[in-house]
Structures are given as C-alpha cells and as structure tokens.
YfhO family protein (Lactiplantibacillus plajomi), 882 residues
Amino acid sequence: MIRRFFDKRTWPLWVSFWLPLLTMTGYFIYRGMAPFGSSSLLTVDLGQQYVDLFAYFRHTLLHDPSAFFYSFSKTIGGEMVGVWAYYLMSPFNLIYLFFPGQSITTGIFIVTVLKYGFAGLSFAWLLTKTKTQKGWLVPTFSTAYAMMGWMIANQLNMIWLDTTAILPMVILGLERLFKTGKVRYFAGWLAVMLIDNYYMGYMVILFSCLYWLYAATKYWQNVKTLVVHVAKFAWGGLLAVALSAWLLLPTFWALMQSKAKYNVTKVHWKFEYAPWKMIAKFVTGTFNFDQMPSGQPNFYVAWLAIFAFMLFFLRRKFHWTVKLSSLLVTAVLLLSFCYEPLDLLWHADQFPVWYPYRFSFVFCFWIVWLGAQALTDKLTVKWWQAAIMLVLSVSGFTTVYLNLKHVSFVTKANLMITIGLAAVTLIFLLVGKQRRRIYQVIALLLVTVDMGINAFASLNNLSYVSQAEFGNYTSALNQSVAKIKASDSSFYRIGKTFTRTKDDPMQAAYNGADHFSSTFEKIIPNFFGSIGQPDGDGVVAYTNGTLISDSLLDMQYFMDKKVPTAQQSNTNYRSYIPVTSTKPDLTNYRGQSRLSTKKVATYKNPYALGLGFGASAAINDLHVSKTTGDPIARQELIYQTLAGRSTSGLISAENFDEVVFQNVKKVTTLTGSVLNKQNLGKTGSIYFKFTPRTNDSYYITLGSNLNTDNASYYINGKELKQYPTYRHTIAVNVAANSKGKTVTFGIQMKKTSLWLQNFTLYKLDNAEFKQSAKKLQQQPWHLTKHSSRKLSGTINITKKNQVLMTTVPYSKGWHATVDGKAVKTKKAINTFVTVPLSKGHHTVTLTYRPPLLLSGSLITGGAVIGTIGWFALKRRRDQLHF
C-alpha cells in the first residue's frame, strides 16, 4: 500500500508537498509560534480581524447554521453571505472546528503550513500532468512557487492563500482545453476559485485571459481552431460563473451595500512610482511592515527560476510567436504593477486599503511556469545565454545599489546575500553535468535555501501577538459572555468598555455593536458616526455610548474591566484587557455580581428598550443628517421623536466654571477656537473645570481634530480611555452621579496649535430621560422566538399613529408579517426597520432572506442539471456509436 502511494510517479508530488510545509514549520518553531512557544501567528489583519471570523465560522457550523445568512454579532446586525464569500469559504477552515477558544491559534498554524504544502503539490501536479518536468526538478520549481515572495508577504492574509493551490489547476484546465477541447476542468476549477474567494477569483479570471493569448500561440493550428478555442474559453468562464452564482449573486448585492459605496475612484493616467523600483523586489528579504500600507509588489522567487525564466526567451526550443506572446503577457503584468489604470483594473476599480498589488502572485506563477518549461533536466545553459543573464542581473543589482536610499526596504546586507545567491546559481548552471540526479538534488537544495532565506529575512521584520495576550483576553471575554448567556436566553445586546478587536462579538458569539470587515453595509458606520461613535469605511467601535444610545440600541448588559488588585500587575492587566471607553454612566446601571468574573464586572441596563418597541410613527418622517446639530443633539432628536415628546429639554449645553491656560494664549470663546502655545519649546495645557449641581450625566463632544495625534486628554488627572481613531465628532462621558464634586477635563497639546473643533460640554437631564425611556418601554415587542435570521413576537399597540420601531438595520432582505399577513417594512432615520401597525394586539415576524440568493441558486441549479444532462447525453451517444 505504501509503495502504491509513494512510487516513482508520485514521490515528486509528495516532496513538493512536504518540503515547503516543513520548511515553514521549522521557521515557525524557531520563532516560537503556538503550539511550540509563547508567540502566535497573529499579526495585523490576521490578529485584528480574521482570527475572530474563524471563531465565528466555528460557532456557525457547530451551533447556529442560520448565521451563514445573517448575524447580530456583526455590529448591531448585518448580512453574512458577503462575509462568508470573502473570508470564510476555504475548505481549510474546517480544521478550526477542532480548536475552540484560545487554541484556535494552533489551528491557524496548521492551516497556514498546509496552504504552503498544497501550493507546492498543486504546482507539482501541473508540472507532471503537462509533462513539463519530472524527477527532482518537480519539487525544485514547486518549492520556488509555493514559497514565492507574495506568499510570504501575504501569509497574514491567509484568506487569499488558497489561490496559490487553485491557480495551477485552473491553468491545467486551460492547457487541457487547448489540447483536448474539454472545458470541464477549466470551468470546474475556476468555479472552485470563485466560491473559495471571489476577489482572488476575479484576478485569476484576468490572468486566464492573458494566459489564453499565450496558449493560443503555443497551440496554434489555424483560424478555425482558434475560433473554437475562443468559444470554449468563453463558455468555460460562463459555466464557472453559473456554477458559483448561488454565492456570487447575493455577494454582489452585499457589495453594492458596502464596499462599492465607500470609495469613489478617480482614474489618473499616470505611473504610481518609478518602475525601476520593482527591480529591488528581486532582492531577498524586501518585505517589512512599511511595505504593507504602500510599497512595491512582492514577487521574489528563487534565482534558479529567474534565470530559467530568462532562458525561456533565449532558447530556440520555443517558436518566435510564443516568445512574443509571452513577452507581451510579461509586459502587461509589469505595467500593471506601476501604471494606475491597470492597477485599478486588477483590483476591480478599487484602490486597495493596505496590501497593494495583491495580484502579484500571478507574476510569480508566470516566472516559475515559463522557467520550468525552459530549463531541461540537464540543467545546462550555454555561455552566450549565461552572459546575457549576467549582464541583466548585474545591471539590476547595480541599479538597486546606486539607489539604496530610494528603496528603504532593501538593506545592503540582503543585497549582498542576493548577489551571492544569484552568482552561485549562475555558476551552478554553467558547470558540466556528469551525474544528473545529484545536480538535480543540488538544484532543489539551492532553491530551498534561497526561498528559506527570503522567508527568514522577510518575516523577521514582523512582530506578532503573544499567545498569552490573545489567550488571556479571549478567556476573560468568553467567560464573561458565557455567564450572561447562561442567565438570560432572551434577545439582548452586550456592550463593553474594553476592546481587543472590533470583531470581539464574533470571537465570543454574542450580540454586540462593534465590527470590522470589507463587506460592511455603509448605513451602519454612517449612523454610528452621526451619534458620536468612532467609525470608518468598514468599521465601527461602540465605545462612546450615552444613556440615550445604550437605551435605544438595547445594550442590556455592559462588561467593564475590574480594577486590578494590589497583587496584580496593572501593566500586564492592561496589556491583554485594553480599556477603550471611559463610562461613568455605569453607576446608573445595576451591578450584577453573580454575572461578574475575576477580571470583568457586569452591569444590567434598566433603560434598555429591547430589539423592538412601539413608538411614534413620526420617526418614519424624521430626517437626521450630519448637519443636524452634533451627536448629542441628534440622539436627543431621535429619542424624543420616538417617545412622542418635546424634542428639546432632554439635553442642555453647559458652561465650564473655570478654564486654566498653562503656556497657552487665552481665548474667550472655546468651541471652534484655535489655541496657540506661548513658548513653543514648552508643554501647553488647558484645564476645563466644572462642578455638577446635580447627579445628571455629563458629556463633552470632541471633533475629529481633537485626536491623540494632536493632544493627550485627562479626566481628573487620569488619562482618558478612548478608542484612538475617529473621523467624526464623538461624545465622551465625563461625569455621572458626581453632584458637588469638581470635574477637571485636561488637554495637553502635542503641537504648537490646537483647534477646539466641536468642543462642548452637555448635561443630560436624567429625570427627563427616564420618563421617555419608561414611556417607550410600555409597548415592548415580546420576542417569543429569535434566531439569526428570524424574529417573532407579540406587541400591544395602545395608541394610534404608532409603529413597531426596531433596531434591526434596514435591508431589502428583511420581510415582515403582521398576524400572518405580509406587510411592507419602512426605513427609519435611514438606518432601521420599522413596521406600521394599527391599534391592538399583534404578532409580528421578521424573516431574513438574502437578496438574489434564490436567483443565484436557480442559475447554479440549472447549470448543474444542464451539465449532468450534457454528459449523460454524450455518454449515451458514445455507447450507441460504439
């Protein structure tokens, strides 16, 4: 049995799989990655986003399959098909089912090294099935491909890595299309690519079009055959799209509500940087943190593959038309890396937010694939060919050396190492080959060392989240959430004053209000930004809730980090439970000692309104724009309109009792003023003091200019705990139940001047607020059943002109029935679902059906049935003919 799976035909495949896998495993063990040490693979987006989504993947499959379509863990609610299509459709993710909680980092380790292995195996399969290479040269080129610079640079974006295993299969399908006329391999693997990750699949489609041009010259026969190949290529692409339509169509709808609305792209017909800088990326170890937000494409491959690629254009083996088409494809790819219109085309007309030139994996494939076709098993090059290679490489290295100050990602040491690797490789190719197999093994070792050095030099530039930091926080969060869930099975949302990531609700599978993803409906950041919460394109952080917003959004529970005891290290405590919200308002909520843990205190909000409640129908006609006052004024307007009460009197602007300027020129008007230092060499500080005459809640609004880049902020001498980035005015809770106690809000300037943008002190009339909250709580929507995509309950409407107001984000996917009859939903304040109701007792049900899911499923079903029918008919014809 062992010999059957490991024989002279299969051993190159096994080596191609295990060599990159074990090489990267060895490096990760050296770095002490969990489970082999105290560190983890979590860094940047993998640590801030993907790990939480992987945990949610596990929760969905094991506990709540309906969350595939919709989730209330995605901020206050959002569609999930788009999230799954972009982040979670990889079959490798099934491994996470075996790694709960903090152990998921071990699952990430396993999945990462497996993706390296399967990339090598897939490329090896392409080489063997096309009879391009055999023996030891199969793993030689496969390792160069599997450990390419793009792979090393983007292993932290592991949701994209499946592409490296699927791309060679798509190309094999194209090769078979030209050789045999069969479309099914190309269409099938392209469909797999689109389902696995439509974003990378789009890039594979573009590359397939370029590859078709090359293959058309490679397999040229006549015009008639060319037309047939065009038709079959188009049919294969359409069939792939049809087979994946069940996922693509609802994803397309999701993108229209999210990413497609964020960026307005204006094309500039220009080069993005000096093209010669790409040469520097052929130097080992040229990936670092600075290259993530902006940089040059990562396409480093072993110098053996680079020289083999050059050899493709120098050998007489290939017809001049094939060389010309190959040169054209190469030119288009290189131009795409620096010419903005082509760069935008590859990224679907959206500038990438970090990680530029995400399509550089196709260039790595192109280099290695052409090189594998050019370098024979004799591993020989002629002197004149070597001379050309030498001139090209020396020219490239000289250009980089003379411009080192312009390519900061290149170190002189790495340049010297690369020159050494290139020299050894070129000399090796010139040496006479008496014992061919030994030389092939040497070639494999040379490539492995080359790619290993690049991985080592590149990844050593990155820092990672420690396993303890991730594990301790995750355990503390999960324990606290588990206690709340065990005590209350109804629908509610949970807020907190600490944050590891904006996807904490997905990590611990609870209904929260934070979120970060590329497929985030725009209406939620717009709303959150308007009511004083930090927001951005694809991100919200509910860290600045007021009594009003907590009530409205049904924040029934709040988790707060406990103050460390004398025996505990506050520094260590803070490192894994980072506080991001100052919230004196918690003194207005009821402490729940039975729900608290050693590290987290839990509070219950008596003013929470529930997911739905009876409210004034005037809310449907209320238009709240960002020009309607500031966040506190907008909250007052919304809340009082819902309650059918006066839209003024709930809040009031207050004056400070005293303002102390230290090394800052005095101003008479605060809001909107520009403060300037007197002595530029000294610190400038301003202290705003007031003494509350009541126990009401007080808030200070800070414009987006008043961020941590421009100043530091303090409340009574202690640093303000605040999520650091926000693009709109936020509301900071500075006092509650502080009657007679002086409150000092301090600002320490970091620059010579500071704009007091939207800087105002507000008082919330707590008694007025409680009356409005009590009125709104009188007509609750009693949920009898609730899941991720279906909500059903009863409500008793006691007055005319009332609606069921929900804090379910509006979407065309939500469908309502009232007493069993379909009713059209409406959108309130451009954000929430409302259902018009008459006076009386009603049963209201909301059901979510992803838009276009049915249409996509019908298309896919038709494609599957049609394909099966075609093969059945063809088989029957063949049998009758026989």
Summary: The chain has 28 helices and 29 strands. Residues 485-608 form one domain.
